[in-house]
Amino acid sequence: MHLQLLSLLASAVLAVPIIDREQQALGSAGGNGPYNPDNNDPYDHKVDSYAKGWQPEPWRNGHGATVFGPRNRDRERQNPDMIRPPSTDHGSMSNYRWSFADSHMRIEEGGWTRQTTVRELGTSTEIAGVNMRLDYGVIRELHWHKEAEWAYVLEGNVRVTALDTEGGNFIDDLQKGDLWYFPSGHPHSLQGLSENGTEFLLVFDSGSFNEESTFLLSDWLAHTPKAVLGENFRVSPQIFKHMDKTDKYIFQGSLPGSIDEEKPDGAGVKKSKLQFTHKMLDQEPVNTTGGLVRITDSTNFPISKTIAAAHLDIAPGAMREMHWHPNADEWSFFIKGRARITIFGAEGNARTFDYMAGDVGVVPRNMGHFIENLSDEEPVEVLEIFKADQFQDFSLFQWLGETPKRLVADHIFQHDPKSAEKFLTQIHDAEKDPIKSGSGTNSE
Ligand SMILES: *[C@@H]1O[C@H](CO)[C@@H](O)[C@H](O)[C@H]1NC(C)=O
Ligand SMILES: *[C@@H]1O[C@H](CO)[C@@H](O)[C@H](O)[C@H]1NC(C)=O
Ligand SMILES: CC(=O)N[C@H]1CO[C@H](CO)[C@@H](O)[C@@H]1O
């Protein structure tokens, strides 16, 4: 047996932590999985404590002790790798996880909105995200802002309108899995369609974006002298007498007809030559052994010059392989499932975070990472979003496969030629497999 493992086992026997009563109760009621004082896992396997109902405890390879004081058990079950980090985690790292459940909800007529920006998550400097719900007929009012806006429809149907810089107008109806992109300053609106309206994720190309401070049509009109409004629109100022004195933002509108019925048709009206929307989920996925990958950036959605994105379906037990992104921070939004990510920050620093539906993750550019599906039953569905015109990543597998074998063996297996041979055979074809299926080689 390996020496290190032997000494781990020995220390486990010598330093058996004291078990509290609650832990004994859990133990007798069918066990608490790998969270017990004599647990030993030199390989740091993942644990789906949330699905199994296990209570993570800070016991690891013979070290640790119970949590004696107050605790939030629900949060701990969602964060097994915080309570008992892999033994490979080390050093100080910033926080790279936030849940929309911790974001303030702004409730409006027929809808709501909440945001995750650099103010909620300090490392979210390149991207801000907004989660919004609009019921049937509910309008996110005509507005514009400095930041470009990219969006993914999570549920339901939505109508978008926009204007381009040449005065061309754009209208489209979108459904789940569709995107839109409005460049900086372009005016636009959103409205929920039947039967239950819509919910979507908005993404802005600056972490300090604030959904509360966009330029609203109603806000501007309410703060312009009515005499000027009359002059501007060539009408009597009196017709603005009953206009709202505050902004509308999100409000119940009248029910929309079809695009054909509603599209503007005046003499000066023209259609935009630009395509502001895209059907991401209709794209043919990239082939991988462990799931589906769809990439949308300015190469297949030309208007999206500042946001690139990947949509991943990671099968139960599968893993988004070890990789990094050279051109932008990753900002991810988890739609389904549970996952763990270890972020490698150089200088021996690494920290593992757990994510579930509704969570946001950040991985700074160039920091190595993977996404492991914690569940054996449920897939992970996640959006990886970048402030970039193109999606770019480096695969560790591919890098080593395309490096002289001698060099690779010298680095990792200098005194272990037998293991070197096994490893080099495995990476020989250097084929990038962005999501790797569970191999079954992971058990002891
Ligand atoms: C709309 O909401 C109602 C009530 O929650 C639900 O019964 C119905 O299935 C929903 N329709 C769709 C298309 O999701
Ligand atoms: C996808 O990959 C599998 C094996 O990895 C292969 O059998 C299949 O033909 C591939 N399909 C496409 C469309 O490339
Ligand atoms: C193939 C594989 O790695 N399967 C693992 C998937 O994750 C569960 C834990 O959630 C492990 O028990 C499996 O070994």
TrEMBL record:
This protein's superkingdom?
A: Eukaryota
Binding, Mn(2+) 1: 143, 145, 149, 188
Which positions are annotated as binding Mn(2+) 2?
323, 325, 330, 369
Q: Read off the Pfam families from this record.
A: Cupin_1
SMART domains, A to Z = Cupin_1
Task: List the active-site residues.
Answer: 384 (proton donor)
Q: What residues does the Cupin type-1 domain cover? A: 108-241, 278-421
Q: Please provide the record's keywords in A-Z order.
A: Manganese, Metal-binding, Signal
For the biological process aspect of GO, one term held by this record is: oxalate metabolic process
The coenzyme or cofactor needed here is: Mn(2+)
Entry protein name: Cupin type-1 domain-containing protein
Q: How is the cofactor bound?
A: Binds 2 manganese ions per subunit.
Signal peptide: which range, if any?
1-15
What's a Gene Ontology MF term here? Answer: metal ion binding
Region Disordered, annotated ranges: 61-90
